[in-house]
Write a structure and sequence with these properties.
Tetratricopeptide repeat protein 38; 24 helices; TTC38; TPR-like_helical_dom_sf; mainly alpha; TPR repeat; transmembrane helix
């Protein structure tokens, strides 16, 4: 029996059993296609339809539960501390694994999923990597590890995890072309921009609607400040990546960043409109944090977005106590601060402080004390106009911000926040520091219109 074959209570295969096996196999393939490709398969009922079909085909199949519960966990939309249904789904999977004769590979998948549910991302990744040593074409392990590395800001690990298995994937292997997108993203996050773009374009030659490869190229153009090239690329391929219901909104977010760079603020709002509607409709954490990030950047550019903040806070307030990953927490704080909901802001920060006292094995809660809470406090100080204190809190953490997860482009918001705080601070040393940071930024990202604009502003403020 293969590791991912559905079990049956019957010793002798029947027509009904064969039909159930067939339904399961089709459902699993549909699920993996959606998960890896970020593609809308509306005729299959989306992720929910695929998962329902998995469980209907074999309600007690362990890997079916690993797949469905694992997806919900990596989506970070709910916390097992607070959501008893999700915590129960984890327990159910572990219990099923304990009373069935399953393969070592399946047991490792269950273990990794359980570790991730407890917030122990590093050990979960270790288990997924163990799977990949013996089963390098296990896309589920590869993709789960990729997502977890992303949440930890583990850029090198995210790249190398894919590099190690690449030789084992052949052109005829299902979903093989999508490894180009995964690998190119790791290359981009480790500053191999030219190689990342080359690999991503190879992926798009094989699969034009690979939204993750498009996403890599969008990042490369952002990090190299090749804004006109990025605008042309995103517009030229919009019809392809628009079909990705999971990633389309995020690609629009990248498009909006180009508009902000070129000071086309009105256009960035128009571009955001698509993301905005998706955020409210989907409940996706990626859509939600993108909306928060975009509004925060626009406000630093001088745009008043108070009404939008109030609307967005209606989405984020339900997640104030989640504390699944620090990256989400920081963006939820942006929304409560923007909406002037001081109670929600205080509740979020105090909750994070409490979890930091006894974090246990939860990697994100372990980082809350040294990294997460100070960044939150810096944002609170900035919101209150205490710019000098913002600098004192944020500057010592600038090389640890990577630990909150996300991408360089997403975390750049905090670099910009620090620069704005130095410019607004009355402390002369901070003002000099701000100009040094801008010189540094210009060296890393030459020809950036945003950097030039900030330099001009700094000189105008501190003549």
């Amino acid at each position: 029996m293969t590791p991912y074959s559905p079990r049956s209570d019957h010793l002798t295969p029947t027509c009904a059993h064969r039909e159930r096996v067939c339904r399961f196999t089709v459902s699993r393939k549909q699920y993996m296609t959606r998960f890896v490709c970020f593609l809308a398969i509306l005729t299959l009922g989306g992720f929910e339809g695929c998962i329902s079909a998995l469980h209907a085909a074999d309600p007690n199949f362990v890997m079916g539960h690993v797949i469905s519960t694992g997806l919900e966990l990596v989506a970070t939309t709910s916390s097992t501390r607070l959501d008893e249904r999700l915590a129960g789904a984890v327990r159910r999977t572990v219990e099923l694994a304990g009373c069935q004769d399953i393969s070592p590979r399946e047991r490792l998948h269950v273990r990794a999923m359980e570790l991730f549910s407890h917030g122990n991302f590093p050990k979960a990744c270790d288990v997924w990597e163990d799977i990949l040593v013996d089963h390098p074409t296990d896309m589920l392990a590869l993709k789960f590890a990729h997502d977890a590395y992303f949440y930890m800001g583990a850029q090198v690990q995210m790249r190398d995890s894919v590099a190690r298995v690449l030789p084992h994937w052949k052109p005829h292997t299902p979903l093989s072309s999508y490894l180009k997108g995964l690998y190119s993203f790791g290359l981009m996050e480790t500053r191999f921009y030219d190689q990342a773009e080359k690999v991503a374009m190879e992926g798009l030659t094989l699969t034009p609607d690979d939204a993750w490869s498009v996403h890599t190229v969008a990042h490369v153009c952002e990090m190299k400040a090749e804004i006109d090239k990025g605008l042309t690329f995103m517009e030229g391929r919009e019809k392809d990546w628009q079909v990705s219901d999971v990633l389309a909104s995020h690609n629009y977010w990248h498009w909006a960043l180009y508009f902000i760079e070129k000071v086309k603020i009105i256009m960035s709002f128009l571009s955001q409109a698509n993301s905005w509607q998706r955020c409210k409709a989907s409940g996706s954490m990626l859509d939600t944090v993108d909306a928060c990030s975009l509004l925060y950047r626009l406000e630093m550019e001088g745009v008043c977005a108070k009404d939008r903040w109030r609307e967005l806070h209606q989405v984020t307030k339900a997640h104030t106590d989640d504390h699944v990953i620090l990256f989400n927490d920081l963006h939820f704080l942006m929304a409560s601060l923007g909406a002037n909901e001081s109670g929600a802001s205080q509740r979020l920060v105090e909750g994070l402080k409490e979890l930091a006292k006894e974090p246990g094995d939860n990697q994100q809660h372990q980082l809350a004390g040294p990294v997460g809470v100070p960044i939150c406090q810096a944002m609170l100080e900035y919101n209150q106009g205490n710019y000098s204190q913002t600098v004192e809190l944020l500057y010592p953490l600038r090389y640890r911000i990577v630990d909150i997860g996300g991408s360089d482009a997403q975390r750049d918001l905090f670099n910009q926040l620090l620069i704005h705080a130095t410019m607004k601070s009355q402390n002369k040393h901070h003002q000099k520091l701000g100009r040094c940071l801008l010189v540094e930024r210009d060296a890393a990202r030459p020809n950036s219109a945003l950097t030039d604009r900030l330099m001009q502003r700094a000189l105008a403020l501190h003549v």
